[in-house]
Prior knowledge:
Layout (H helix, E strand, L loop, with lengths): L23 E5 L2 E4 L4 E4 L2 H4 L8 H13 L12 H11 L6 E7 L2 H18 L7 E5 L8 H5 L4 H4 L10 E4 L4 H4 L6 H19 L4 E7 L15 H11 L3 E6 L23 E4 L11 E6 H9 L14 H16 L2 H20 L5 E7 L2 E6 L15 H12 L1 E2 L13 E5 L7 H21 L2
Parallel strand pairs: 3-13, 5-6, 5-7, 7-8, 8-9
Antiparallel strand pairs: 1-2, 2-3, 4-10, 9-10, 11-12, 12-14
Helix pairs in contact: 2-11, 3-11, 4-10, 8-9, 12-14, 13-14
Bound molecules: pyridoxal-5'-phosphate (PLP).
GO molecular function, one term: transaminase activity
Family: Belongs to the class-III pyridoxal-phosphate-dependent aminotransferase family.
Pfam families: Aminotran_3
Amino acid sequence: MPLNPSVAKSHVLHRALAYEPQKIVSGSGISFTLESGKIVYDASAGPSVSVLGHHQPEVTQAIIEQLDKIAYVYSGSRHTCEAAESLATEILKDAPGGLVKAIFVNSGSEATDAALKLATQYFCEVGQPKRTNFIARKQSYHGNTLGALSVSGHESRRAYYQPWISNNVSFVDPCYSYRAKGLSESNEQYVERLKLQLEDEFLRLGPDTVAAFVAETVSGTTLGCVPPVPGYFKAVREICDKYGALLILDEIMCGMGKTGTMHAWEQEGISGPDIQMIGKALGGGFVPLSGVLLNRKVFDGLARGTMVLAHGHTFQAHPTACAAALAVQKIIKRENILEQVVRMGDFLETELNEEIGHLAHVGDIRGRGLFWAVEFMRDPNTKTPFLAEHNFSNRIVEVAAELGLNILGNLGKTGKIDVELVILAPPYIVKEDEIKAIVQLLKTAIFVVSEEHA
Ligand code: PLP
């Protein structure tokens, strides 16, 4: 078959086959520079990754020092390195939420796969091998590998791979009050409805067959920075405990400080998850690194049986990656950066509400810390959504890019509810004047695209 003439010439295979990607040649602070010389505000820190910005001499130094000591250590059998040990100690100091052990892998998807496998092995080791079912949420995303995709309710990402995807996963509604809470329903009633639905699913499957419930604490790309309704995760924790299942929280996108606390679940009034995935902000994009954290119960269970994890990767706990992430985490702590996340987050919220809250198609502005989304509606008064074919938010992302603003938009059809949104998750080092500039550029982009739909 002849090649489609619109296919991009790049030898790198990019996600959009026809799209000729723009080269980024350098970065500093919260901006990057394109080959053309254009400077772009990275208002989403890539996909919510570059939390200390695009250049940090201390992190560079930590990487060089590690490479000067030793470049690679295989930590799959008898060895470890100081960087991995110190990083785990730093993250697990004082056992947050009872979390006591860490596994470091290379991507968020690998972390999700590891979490699912650890939960499954845990139940085998403690003598409950029938617990092989997982309950996850519709319109969710936990990664692209086949295990992670199995617990992701993201329709377009799953579509081609159905034959490979596990049937051991069922899906309940996410907590998404803007579109799914009834008009006269109180928060408490909404939580009760979701709790009953989750409990019904446990009962339908047979409670002693459920290994875990999997959810993002604050939903990222698929629904757009949706903080849970107060009491939601308490209710979820209660159901998991009642039926002896584990709670697995995905904080790959929303965790490691983005919502103003190191872990987003700290704001949910729960003691913590049993297993947690972390990523993105862990290494701040200087290196690929993600992780899985386990609490005492899960670790003790695993340590009861064969004493060998049936899981591992060649590059797990890579010394350079751990050294860079350790430097990132030390800077965050030493500079009290989470206080800045809260302060700048409040400022961003106010700017968004004041500057764009009144615009024609702005339906909802929501988020926490420096993790915010704007959801668009054809008619916000009646909550009439745009259809996917209107391509509304993707146009906003395009126009914003032309204006020198990088933000995240919709990533394919995620589920039954069409959510048109953009995400702003600027680096933790963002300043007030930069937030003002970002919001003004977004305002212009919304204005331009709204005119196209007038
Ligand atoms: N989980 C969540 C919530 C994510 O947002 C992502 C990536 O966007 C992943 C998992 C997968 O992470 P990765 O792309 O590093 O594999």
